[in-house]
Amino acid sequence: MKPNIVLINCDDLGWGDLGCTGHPLHRTPHLDRLAAEGTRFTSFYQGSAACSPSRGAMLTGCHPCRIGITDVLFPGQAIGLSKEEETFATVLKRAGYSTHIVGKWHCGDQEAFLPTNHGFDSYYGLPYSNDMGRQAGRQSQPPPLPLLRGTEVVEAQPDQRSLTSRYTEECVKIIRANANRPFLLYLAHLHVHLPHYVAERFVAESENGVYGGAVACIDWSTGVIMKELRDLGIDGNTIILFTSDNGSRCDFGRSNGALRGTKATTWEGGLRTPLLVRWPGKVPAGRVSDTMIWGMDFLPTFAAIAGEKPQGRLPIDGVDALGAFMGDGRELHETFPYYFSRHLCGVRRGDWKLFVSRRTWGDKPAGEGAFPELYNLRDDIGETRNVAADHPDIVARLLKDIEHYRRTFGDSGTGDAGTQCRACGRVENPAPLTAFNADDPYYQAVYDLGDAG
User: Fold this and answer.
1) Catalytic site residues?
2) CA–CA separation, 272 and 81 (whole Å)
3) Does any domain span residue 444?
């Protein structure tokens, strides 16, 4: 039977947030076991330092600029993932897989954009971030958070403290129902995104407050899924991938480890995230690899695992990383571009990272002042020493890479439109999925629950 694929994607979890990645306070025994029984990749990049573009890129194998989703999407917007784009669920469904997503989607909340219209057989979760519902202290309150099953709202403003348990229960049901056929399970956690609503038992044991409790909750959920796979005897025929959509905000310490910067910046801490890959007998156990891998590589890699091919009608940017997962040692990518929305800020080639501009939220340029800034990521992973003046030849080479990406994906900073950019999806007459009725006792009750955390 073709191997099962379980992808666990966290929200704002940092590169250094796990025990196996060096966090001194977070206890993550199940994830540490996952790393010990598989390979931990230290140069894994998502396509963006923000959620919607990152997730769209991972689903489609395309850079966010290519698919037209470069900024965070909000409830009731008219735009989302185009029906023209193929997702890894579409590819696997074509290969005979049962395909399921549980948790956060965030690629558009109108019906045409929802998961069941993009290759998934089932969906249960929130269509966008958990802070996009009603919260205490806001002057302008959005509609209640919609919990969806398929395309139907089954609950408004659910108690978020229960959601990870409910998501995990749904995952167990999916695994049991598909134990005798190949399946894709994509679990997209709401943790550790703000606001933090965490079951009290995890907070009580945490050494790092509610944030550490959220990390522990993710670890618990992973342990439940791993145990279920073992109990059903399908553990050896299942590849598990664990990652995050972008870096941490670092509100509770150095969640990004030695990396500089945070979510929504183009420092390494914004786009470099943890990646653990486990597949018994196929992926080497206990290995740590610095091979550069992109979230955009998942689609062609999943296709290779399933013996399928991407459609080929539209260009993609990811490549098959199965060999890298299995330890062949070959490099997959020569370069990686650092975009802030449609603004090209820099590029990596090998060990070298060049900044030609920077757009960040709340961060200031560092070093000697004027761009370009050059950093050697092998010797200076924290991006503290600008060595551009010492290596003009390397700067010149990376400037050619910058021009390549400007031609390909554009650059709002220079006015380049890009030759490989496609339009996102768009619908007429968009509307929020829920509405708040202050006179309804039910809505007032669930609003109170949402505020209690």
Assistant:
1) 51, 106
2) 23
3) no
Q: Which residues contact 386 (CB under 8 A, 6 or more apart)?
A: 366, 367, 368, 373, 374, 375
CA atoms of 318 and 301, how far apart (whole Å): 9
Domain membership flag for residue 48? yes
- 10-residue averages of pLDDT along the chain (453 residues): 98 98 98 98 97 98 98 97 98 98 98 98 98 76 93 96 98 98 98 97 97 98 98 98 98 97 97 98 98 98 97 95 94 97 97 90 49 97 97 98 98 96 98 80 51 36
- 340 and 320 in a common domain: no
Give the DSSP letter of residue 360: -
User: Burial letters for 397-423: b for 16+ Cβ neighbours within 10 Å, e otherwise?
Assistant: ebeebbeebbebbbbbbeebebeebee
Query: CA–CA distance from 50 to each of 55, 140, 213, 271, 339 (Å)?
Result: 9, 23, 23, 8, 10
Domain that holds residue 347: 336-426
Question: Which CATH number is 318's domain given?
Answer: 3.40.720.10
Task: Compute, in degrees rounded to 10, the torsion defined by CA atoms 338, 371, 396, 392.
Answer: -130
**In whole angstroms, how large is the CA radius of gyration of the chain?**
21
Residue that is written with structure tokens 């940092």 in the block: 14
Question: What is the Cα–Cα distance from 183 to 174, expressed in whole angstroms?
Answer: 9
Instruction: Specify if 450 maps to a domain.
Output: no
One-letter amino acid for residue 118 of the chain: H
Domain count, the chain: 2
Cα–Cα distance, 169 to 192 (Å, whole number): 19
Amino acid letter at 322? L
Q: What kind and span of H or E run contains 202? A: helix 200-205
Q: How far is CA 254 from CA 1, 244, 366, in A?
A: 43, 16, 19
What six digits make up the tokens of 177? 């129902």
Q: Residue 2 gets which letter from DSSP?
A: P
Query: Cα(62)–Cα(106) distance, rounded to whole angstroms?
Result: 16
Q: Is 81 in contact with 308 (CB distance < 8 Å)?
A: no
Task: Tell whether 341 and 329 lie within a shared domain.
Answer: no
Q: Are residues 283 and 419 in the same domain?
A: no
**Residues 28 and 99 placed together within one structural domain of the fold:** yes
How far apart CA 158 and CA 35 sit, in angstroms, is 33
